[in-house]
Amino acid sequence: RGYSSYLYNQAFSKCLIQYKELGDEALADVFLFRERKRLRHLFRGRTLVLMPSTAEKLQERGFSHLQLMFGCLGMNMTEPFVKLPGTEQKRLGAVQRKQIMQRIRLKEDAEIPDRIVLCDDLITTGSTLRSALNCLSRDIDMMIYACAYVPEHGSGHQLP
């Protein structure tokens, strides 16, 4: 099952750009703060598995945006994936995003808990999460959560 707190819109986009691209770390709690109690309950007993950024993007940004964003939940988090260079998605079309599946790998020393929540800030095509899923054992009890997603049809906050 997958969940999100927001449908992607212009206001969310501006806030995310201000946070991630302009380095406004003070916005980290804005995304999840109002739902932190509900999310802690929903994800109780699970480890948050954060989707990767490229090393270049982390260096440019100077912080892990997902660590800060999900930090307000006070839950165990891990970053077991690595995203290979050349995979900045915001400039890619849907077909190119699907090719990203070959560019995300598990770190050599990665340990994946039995009960996890795959976490990201935004789902557009789902390529990053599908790539992560391809790296994981099918025996893991997992949920998917993104702060926002771009709905193809309809509305609502539970992902299809």
Multimerization state: single chain
Sum up the overall morphology in one term.
Answer: globular
Binned, the helix content reads 25-40%
The CA-CA distance between the termini, in Å, is 8 Å
| Biggest beta sheet attributes | 6 strands, mixed
Nearest-angstrom radius of gyration? 15 Å
Q: What class would the helix/strand composition place it in?
A: alpha/beta
| Beta-strand content bin | 15-25%
Query: How many strands?
Result: 8
Helical stretch tally: 6
The helix/strand series, from N terminus to C terminus, equals EHHEHHEEHEEHEE
Uncertain stretches of 5 or more adjacent residues:
153-160
Strand order within the widest beta sheet: 3-2-6-7-1-8
Mean pLDDT: 87
Plain-language structure description:
The strands form two sheets. A six-stranded mixed beta sheet has the order 3-2-6-7-1-8, sandwiched between helices. The protein has a two-stranded antiparallel ribbon with strand order 4-5. Helices cover 29% and strands 24% of the residues. It is of the alpha/beta class and 160 residues long. Strand 6, helix 6 and strand 7 form a beta-alpha-beta unit.
